[in-house]
Specification:
By secondary structure, the chain is α+β, with helices and mostly antiparallel strands. It has one domain: Nuclear Transport Factor 2, Chain: A (Roll). Helices cover 26% and strands 41% of the residues. It has helices at residues 15-33, 37-41, 60-72; strands at residues 44-52, 55-58, 79-91, 94-104, 116-126, 129-139. It has a 6-stranded mixed sheet, covered by helices on one side. The longest helix has 19 residues, at 15-33. The relative contact order is 0.17.
Length: 144
């Protein structure tokens, strides 16, 4: 006899919770627009991790220092965009958020194929605020 098993049903996510989670990428875009490394770093928990291609940074203070340097360097005059694709509950007070977006070079209004990314956000509830425990992105398209 064959028995079918199914995955447990995911709890329904309230519209309020979805809005709270979706606000995190909006806060990141806003911090980036202002080239505000402090606001960017405050999106992370104290020991949060930022992973970008070729970059691994741990800790809010180190993330702030990195972004200060990059806003004055390769990210000068840039902006970013990101749209949530999926939200996956991980447990009480923790979710994974998947987004697509990228860096917009000065004067651009559409992300180039070269700058397009997919990102994983591990968000945790920190008091009343959702913050990043881990942010990781990679190129959206295969590199040839």
């Amino acid at each position: 006899m064959t028995t079918k098993t199914s995955a447990p049903a995911k709890p329904a996510m309230s519209p309020t919770l979805k809005a709270e989670l979706s606000s995190v990428p909006i806060r990141l875009v806003t911090a980036w627009e202002a080239h505000d490394a402090e606001a960017f770093s405050m999106l992370f928990v104290e020991d949060g991790t930022l992973i970008l291609p070729g970059v691994y940074i741990k800790g809010r203070d180190e993330i702030r220092k990195y972004m200060e340097a990059e806003y004055a360097g390769k990210y000068q005059g840039t902006s970013v965009t990101g749209t949530p694709l999926d939200i996956k509950p991980l447990g009480a007070g923790a979710v994974a958020l998947i987004t697509v977006g990228g860096v917009l070079m000065p004067g651009e209004n559409k992300v180039s194929t070269k700058e397009a990314i997919r990102a994983s956000w591990i968000l945790v509830k920190d008091g009343d605020t959702w913050r990043l425990a881990v942010y990781h992105n990679c190129p959206r398209d295969p590199v040839h």
